[in-house]
Write a structure and sequence with these properties.
This protein is α+β, with helices and mostly antiparallel strands. The protein folds into 4 domains: about 140 residues, Roll (ibrinogen binding protein from staphylococcus aureus fold); about 130 residues, no CATH class; about 110 residues; about 110 residues, no CATH class. It has 13 helices and 22 strands. Strands 15-16-18-17-19-22 form a 6-stranded antiparallel β-sheet, with helices on both faces. Helix 4 packs across helix 5, helix 5 packs antiparallel against helix 6 and helix 8 packs antiparallel against helix 10. The two termini are about 15 Å apart.
Length: about 575
Amino acid sequence: MALDGAFLRHIKKELEENLINSKVDKIYQPSRDELILSMRSFEGIKKLLISARANSPRINITSSTPENPRTPPMLCMLLRKRLSGARLRSIHQPGLERILILEFEGKNELGDTVIMKLAVEIMGQYSNIVFIDEKNNIIDSVKRVDASMSSQRLILPGLQYQMPPSQKKLSVLEYDADDIISAVQGINNNMLLSKALLNIIQGVSPIICRELEHLTGRGRDVFSKELDEELISRLRFFLKRTINIIRDCSGEPYIITDPSKKPIDFTFEDIQQYGSGRSFKECKSFCELLDRYYAKRDALETIRQKSNDLNKLLNNAASRLIKKIYIQKEELSTCADREYFRICGDIIQANLYRINKGDPELKAENFYDENMSEITVKLDPALSPAANSQRYYKSYQKAKTAEQVLTVQISQAENELDYVSSVLDSLSRAESIRELDEIRTELTEQGYLKSKGKKQKNEAALPPLEFRSQSGFKILVGRNNKQNDKLTLKQADKNDLWFHTKDIPGSHTIIITQGNTVDDDTILFAASLAAAHSKARESGKTPVDYTKIRYVSKPQGAKPGMVIYTNQKTLFVEPYKSDLI
């Protein structure tokens, strides 16, 4: 669901209750489209997140602490200079538009009291955060909009700030249920009631309109032209209920999840249109709802943006290796006939007396065949019989040498492809900038990235992921190949249990046994964790090998994360699914 004006009205109420009269203590800009204002009051410090990202625009109090760039962007430095120490005086929402105007009172460089505003525009890909002075002039914005991008509304420093064009819909703050019903009945085209309501009501998202149609039609589709007295009566009842919830800000924050617990929607009132196919989880506040709904998506989006170059590098390397292996295997297939060259050479050598210089071929008995069948051997008329024999022997030797070399090269290329695939898997599961940095370091050490001349101070390595089984056993999961090596070859005891997906890139998973016997439930749990932290995490039943650490070793010269093992057992398990909300 898009964050609509009705939901934003509930957010506005929460922000007013928690932040009015608090001061701006610190300002951060974790990414190009995000701001975080640390707001201080007598009750403590609360962090206000403002996002203009196209896929997750919002404003809410957050409990998360995103990683910040080492050098703050220019806009962040400007806001720190002008807005630090300012007090939040009011929050205004024009009607049910998806816009909040935050008004601050602060001091300018001369010590005079001035009014400054942040206009937070929640409009999908057109979302923006605009910094405005007391004369309504734009100081700067997260996204500047010039004449080449829009001919109707420019967002540039020095220009007057103008509200986005109104959609000319009916606001439920001013119009009642009967006004909306009359507008629906006045539509010329016969359309679904949900679509008609969406075109008429300001600030209401599709899920609310679909719910009104669902309740009006008792689960069936309702069209605007078929509204009879009974349907109108039902529509009026449910419209009034929704209007009162919006006007009074009396809704409850609900997250809607699919059967795998993945959040798919959110709303401010109970929803029945999904039936038993979806579950609902009520949150303590609307800000907490947005924080939980978007937290994982935002983290993954940040990682995706910062890992694009690594993804491109690794995918190009994988494509190059796949092509190389294919060509080499094609060449290897041509070496399969090398024995034919040797046989031809031997037959020519045995029949030298029968060959005259200039003969194009030799027909003779094949003494390598049990039936002594006749074989035709092609000859080069320009060569002597002995030279023709040597020509076949050379072809045989060349094919034999090529087979030996190609076999080694194909094995090396396949091992390198396995390594690249394992790094791609680690990259796809990275959840922080530090994890990305560790992967960059690994790729630099392996020669895939050029080393930067100036060495930066190395941060302490991240610890492995840690889990606990119900019986109390500690389970550790490596985040990347270097950590896998350290975990398996240095940290783990020889009697600990080691898990890895069978023939699938993934993390090393260790049960720390401390000499105790591990129960079956813990083994199954560790296997499901190994499957979840692998390339097969979105699959169903996944094969996972496990054995004792004493049976795991690293071949000399093998790349990070590459090991061999014996005495293993194999389990087929579902990848572990954590509660995503």
